[in-house]
Design goal:
Length: about 280
């Protein structure tokens, strides 16, 4: 990783996004085809809410990549850039390219991960049909891993039930929601090791479905057991506090969420959402 990228990432973590961008632009004067620096500049621009400009840098990274993996990494960054604008279709278009790369390397686990990433962006942007389609693709791909171990199969089964429960909750189908929540819990109950690894994802699920079911008290209790550093959880808690009439705690959640400097689906939803909430 170039020194400029390390330096810029440190500045970004400190919230100094304009300074980070200045470093990347200076470095690109010297090395305009640097894939990591173009990617890094694009990430900062997405965090600044300048997606159209960010995508020029990701396009340059894709064009300049000299290995299939470097190209796939840049395509994944491009997918996330569209995610920051809740653009399910274009996110899925680029995730498909990354998925195809992992098909070529016969990496079933990463195929599943990329499909789930597309699905996550689609559910957060409200395209539930596309989300279901991509979660199904991810589930089917993940299970094709050669010699898959039982715990890995359990992981994909848990993720699939988790996804179906959230989609059913968004559609207002309570019976279907509870069926999948119960199935997810049963998978964790039979595998104590996995229950430990996925400990924060079950209360996230229960809190999520409670929120969309209008049970805000339960939603808050469960979300407080989920990952408190996840900006998506912070936003969901903020929305829950708002529903409970607690504006002060809601704003506190949004202030935390807006500081994320990640370039992934939770951040892609949370940073623009929290920025709007904070005005």
């Amino acid at each position: 990783m170039p020194q400029a990228v390390r330096q810029g990432q440190q500045l970004a973590r400190e919230g100094k996004l304009d300074e980070a961008l200045a470093i990347y632009r200076e470095e690109l004067q010297k090395s305009p085809n640097s894939v990591p620096v173009n990617n890094a500049a694009g990430v900062v621009l997405d965090l600044l809410g300048k997606g159209a400009e960010a995508r020029k840098y990701f396009a340059k990274a894709i064009e300049s990549a000299t290995t299939p993996q470097a190209k796939a990494n840049a395509e994944r960054a491009m997918a996330m850039s569209y995610a920051f604008e809740s653009d399910c279709a274009n996110t899925a278009k680029y995730e498909q390219m990354v998925f195809d790369y992992y098909v070529s390397t016969k990496d079933a686990y990463q195929q599943g991960e990329m499909a789930d990433e597309a699905a996550r962006v689609c559910i957060d942007s409200g395209d539930l049909d596309a989300a279901y389609k991509w979660y199904r693709i991810g589930y089917d791909a993940g299970l094709k891993e050669p010699g898959i171990k039982p715990d890995r199969a359990d992981l994909w089964n848990f993720r699939w039930e988790h996804a179906q429960a959230r989609i059913a909750a968004r559609r207002g189908n309570k019976a279907e929601t509870q069926k999948h929540v119960a199935a997810a819990k049963a998978i964790l109950d039979k595998d104590p090791e996995m229950a430990k690894q996925q400990a924060v994802f079950y209360p996230y699920l229960v809190g999520y479905v409670a929120f969309y079911g209008g049970d805000y008290k339960t939603a808050l209790e469960e979300l407080q057991k989920a990952n408190q550093n996840d900006p998506f959880i912070q936003c969901l808690m903020g929305q829950t506090y708002e529903k409970l009439g607690d504006k002060a705690h809601a704003m506190e959640c949004y202030r935390k969420a807006v500081t994320t400097t990640a370039h992934n689906p939770p951040a892609a939803f949370a940073r623009p959402f929290a920025r709007k909430k904070l005005g």
